[in-house]
Amino acid sequence: MSDSHPRAWRVLREEHLQHCRVFDVHVATMESPQTGSAHPFYRIESPAWVNVVALTPQDELVMVRQFRHGPRVVTLEIPGGIVDPGEAPDEAAARELLEETGYRAGRLASLGSLNPNPALFGNRCHMQVALDCVPAAEIQNSATEETLVELVPLASLPELLRRGAIDHALVVAALYAFDLWRSRASSASDI
C-alpha cells in the first residue's frame, strides 16, 4: 500500500445559494487534483450543534419524544440543539437540557465532538454528558417544537437500540461515546 494521502481539491468559485433559518446552502466549483476537471459540490453551513446524554441519580436517561420533519415521525432522542453564538458547548448543553426537558444537570462533562456528515457539513456536533439531572423548571419549547420527556432506565438502552427505537445517527453516536466514557470512568472510579 502507498503511504500517500488523497490530495485536497482547489476551490475555483463559491456561491451562497440559500439561507434556511438554521443553515445556509453553498455550491462550490472544485478542481480535481487528479484530473484537473471542475465539479460542483454542495455544502451546508451550520452553527455547531450539541447533544446531551442526561442521567438522573436513579440511572435513568432523560430523553425526549418529538416530531421530526425529515422522516415525518415522532422519534425518541436525547436533548440537543444549536450552540448559540458566543456560547460554549457545555453552556449550550445545559440550556438545551433545561429548555427541552425542564431538567438541570448537577455536572457536565465533554464526550468529544464529531462531524455530522463530512460529505455535506463542515460543523461539529459536541456531545456532553449531564449527571445528577433533576427536574427544575417547566419545558420551554419554541413555537416550532414540542417535546415530551421520557425517562428511560439505562439498563433498557441496549434493547431500545437493538430494535431501532432510537435511530437518530447522532444520538446513537453520543450514546456510544457515553458508553465509552462510562467504561473509562468506572475503571478510574470517576462515576
Report on the architecture of this protein:
The chain is α+β, with helices and mostly antiparallel strands and 191 residues long. It has two domains: 10-45, no CATH class; 49-187, Nucleoside Triphosphate Pyrophosphohydrolase (Alpha-Beta Complex), CATH 3.90.79. It is 20% helix and 39% strand. It has a four-stranded mixed sheet with strand order 7-4-10-9, sandwiched between helices. Strands 1-2-3 form a three-stranded antiparallel sheet, with no helix packed on it. The chain has a three-stranded antiparallel sheet with strand order 6-5-12, with no helix packed on it. The chain is globular and about 60 Å long. The termini are far apart.
Give structural attributes:
alpha+beta, 2 domains, 191 residues, 3 helices, Nucleoside Triphosphate Pyrophosphohydrolase
Strand content: 35-45%
First CA to last CA: what distance?
43 Å
**Molecular shape:** globular
CATH fold naming of the largest domain? Nucleoside Triphosphate Pyrophosphohydrolase
- Briefly note the structural class of the backbone: alpha+beta
What CATH architecture of the largest domain do you see? Alpha-Beta Complex
Q: Unreliable segments (pLDDT under 50, ≥5 consecutive)?
A: none
